Amino acid sequence: MGTKGSANRQRIVQAADRLFYSRGYNQTSFSDISDETGIPRGNFYYYFKTKDDILDAVVASRLTFFKQVLDDCNCQSDDPKTRLKIFIATPLGQEEQVIKYGCPIGTLGSELVKDQDHLIAKEKLTVVFDLIKSWMVEQFMRISSADKAADYAMDLLAKMQGFTIIASVYKDVNYLHRATQSAQDWIDQLAVN
Amino acid sequence: MGTKGSANRQRIVQAADRLFYSRGYNQTSFSDISDETGIPRGNFYYYFKTKDDILDAVVASRLTFFKQVLDDCNCQSDDPKTRLKIFIATPLGQEEQVIKYGCPIGTLGSELVKDQDHLIAKEKLTVVFDLIKSWMVEQFMRISSADKAADYAMDLLAKMQGFTIIASVYKDVNYLHRATQSAQDWIDQLAVN
DNA sequence: GTCTATACCTTGATAGAC
DNA sequence: GTCTATCAAGGTATAGAC
């Protein structure tokens, strides 16, 4: 195993992932990551050239996380509607965190759109969105017509971003549950054609 | 007119408002505001005790902005459906900015949920959301039943947050237009009862 | 590979002259 | 009221010993 997979490097990425989520990228310092890993600040530069590189690694890590989530959805059912409803319920599995810090990719997106730099991270982040969107399109394609599937997928993506941000701003768990149910009902109600 | 309404104070708030929107609160420094206003850094503390106080003033400013927007909607039509559709189209009026920086209250909310401090600003920000939500409820009450009106309002609030964030992450103006139209269609299609 | 020490800059905030 | 000078703290990043 090369440098890229070293244990220390992994620990840095994992700690940064948590901190970027709970505090935001800009508000997370090397000292914060150092405190949580026990690895001294100066040592980071052996594994990463810049803070930006850590961000890139974190976004890559979130990509693999969502790949895993979608794989799990695929494994749990063959029915596209059931799969979509399982995915819609994903935020409920992280309920406490979602209320506190919002969506891990949505809030990072909000942060990065306001920044001139981080071009690679921004591109990688849209890859995460595209991954989810493509998977949704696949499912919707088996429910409705091909041209509607793309729109449905964007709608669902936006719907989930929407209720996540509202739930986190209002700190309203009940709303998170109601909105999840509502989105699932929307899936159920879709006509098969 | 007292200190609160002084010309310099207003210029600081206006510049901060723009910068907090385009760069984010945490990424905006006193130097940035100083550069845009021409007012020296050290002078800010005559008008505001802390950076947090500037944030409070900015959020208050956005509150009055949205009050104005809603008043305009009320003036343009008496029909609740028409009013809602006008409001839904608001982001299109700031199309370029929305694509670049997202929603002025949504992205600020995303930033502030990750912060322990800024308690007053966070409260004031939910007041902005509540203002919009209450207005929506009023309109929906004239369309459907009272118990459904509250849910519809939350749905619409989430819907708009959702398509705004997706449009800004993807930098997709066409999607912003399609999603706006879709939300307006949803209003039209609502049964009156 | 690991760690310490530190350079250099920018931050929010203060003190005090005018 | 306005401005300059400056503070202490914290930021990213680097140099170099071990």
Describe this structure in words.
The structure is a homodimer of 193-residue chains. Chain A is an all-alpha fold and 193 residues long. In chain A, 76% of the residues lie in helices and 0% in strands. In chain A, helix 9 crosses helix 10 (146-170) and helix 10 (146-170) packs antiparallel against helix 11. The radius of gyration of chain A is 18 Å and the shape is elongated. The mean pLDDT of chain A is 96. At the A-B interface, helix 8, helix 9, helix 10 and helix 11 of A face helix 8, helix 9, helix 10 and helix 11 of B. The structure holds a DNA duplex (18 and 18 nucleotides).
* Tally of contiguous helical segments of chain A: 11
Silhouette of chain A:
elongated
Main interface: chain pair and counts: A-B, 38 and 38 residues
Helical fraction of chain A equals over 70%
Tell me which oligomeric state these chains represent: homodimer
Characterize the largest beta sheet of chain A: strand count, sense, and whether it forms a barrel. Answer: none
| Mean pLDDT over all positions of chain A | 96
Order of helices and strands of chain A: HHHHHHHHHHH
* Strand portion of chain A: under 5%
Q: Roughly how many Å apart are the termini of chain A?
A: 50 Å
Number of E-type strands of chain A:
0
Structural class of chain A: mainly alpha
How large, in whole angstroms, is the Cα Rg of chain A? Answer: 18 Å
- List unreliable stretches of 5+ residues of chain A: none
